Automatic annotation (TrEMBL):
Pfam families: HATPase_c_2 (PF13581). Residues 26-134 form the Histidine kinase/HSP90-like ATPase domain. Keywords: Kinase, Serine/threonine-protein kinase, Transferase. The lineage of its organism: Bacteria, Pseudomonadati, Planctomycetota, Planctomycetia, Pirellulales. SUPFAM superfamilies: ATPase domain of HSP90 chaperone/DNA topoisomerase II/histidine kinase. This is Serine-protein kinase RsbW. GO terms for molecular function: protein serine/threonine kinase activity. It comes from the Bacteria.
Amino acid sequence: MSAEWDWTAETEIPSKLGAHLPFLEEVLSRMESLGWGGRDLFGVQMTLEETLTNAIRHGNHSDASKLVRAACKVNGERFWLSVEDEGEGFCRDDVADCTADENVGAFGGRGMALIDAYMADVSFNDRGNRITVTTHRGYRPPVDDAD
């Protein structure tokens, strides 16, 4: 896979729901022009929606004076995204596993489960206020045969 990126973007988004949509739409449009589609593009769309709205709502508590910083890199095979808010951060281990029997129907955790399902790599900074994700075309998560 080439290390070069065909398109890169950085933006600052006010923490107001809906303010993230122009960036999301631009990323998806660029990816479509690079041949992304189907499940791959859907996964990127879900990830953009979840990371950006979580930063706005949970990180910055919808305080329009606070910004969400997003950076994205794309080529015909790979997608990279970093989203950072001005909040205190969180510990990933504190987010309930929404797939566990005891949490079915509980509020919260679904966004992280979706991101995990579509992204090949998910990481957070130590503070917990920046998420970085990557994936590639055709990525499918490993199947858990433990059941």
